[in-house]
User: Which sequence fits this backbone?
């Protein structure tokens, strides 16, 4: 354990929302999991969805499970920071109220989103900081996607085409972190968030 200060957030008056985005297979979920392990005091947003819970999923922990009607109501009244339809079926999004509540309490807030979601949050909360997680190279991104083995050739090509568009949006972001090493990249994201304590 490395301890720089008793309070991991020395200036709680300036708690800030940090949005992490980047192309498919770059490791956004891996960085988020490492942050959850090493910096448990950072508040990591839980998405809302209209899909039904799967076995073992807990409302408010894995997702906020909402009816389609409730989701529509929240979206239409501005209580979603961002949302999208995924795979043409269910909707996913970020509730505004929990994010604002945690920021008001002085906790750094972390969102892991795709490019579309990050753009919506920039419209809703322009004072947030936006971090682009980049691969070390295009070849490495292709290797990671291929080695996952979770997509067939057609789906893999579709995701790579999307990744090219996402990489072209890098200039929209405030910071770029290269995910060549998970621990180092997580250190960099935590430093950008002003977190001065992490558990190894």
Assistant:
């Amino acid at each position: 354990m490395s301890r720089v200060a008793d309070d991991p957030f020395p200036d709680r008056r300036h708690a800030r929302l940090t949005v992490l985005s980047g192309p498919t297979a770059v490791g956004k979920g891996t960085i988020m999991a490492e942050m959850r392990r090493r910096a448990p005091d950072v508040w990591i947003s839980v998405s809302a969805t209209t899909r039904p819970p799967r076995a073992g999923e807990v409302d408010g922990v894995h997702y906020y499970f909402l009816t389609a009607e409730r989701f529509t109501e929240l979206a239409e009244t501005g209580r979603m920071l961002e949302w999208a339809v995924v795979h043409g079926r269910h909707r996913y999004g970020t509730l505004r109220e929990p994010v604002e509540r945690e920021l008001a309490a002085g906790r750094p807030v972390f969102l892991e989103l795709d490019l579309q979601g990050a753009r919506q949050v920039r419209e809703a909360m322009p004072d947030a900081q936006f971090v682009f997680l980049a691969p070390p190279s295009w070849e490495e991104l292709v290797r990671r996607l291929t080695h996952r083995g979770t997509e067939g050739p057609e789906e893999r090509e579709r995701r790579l085409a999307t990744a090219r568009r996402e990489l072209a949006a890098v200039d929209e972001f405030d910071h770029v972190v290269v995910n060549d090493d998970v621990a180092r990249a997580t250190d960099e994201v935590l430093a950008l968030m002003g977190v001065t304590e992490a558990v190894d």
In short: The first helix runs from residue 28 to 38.
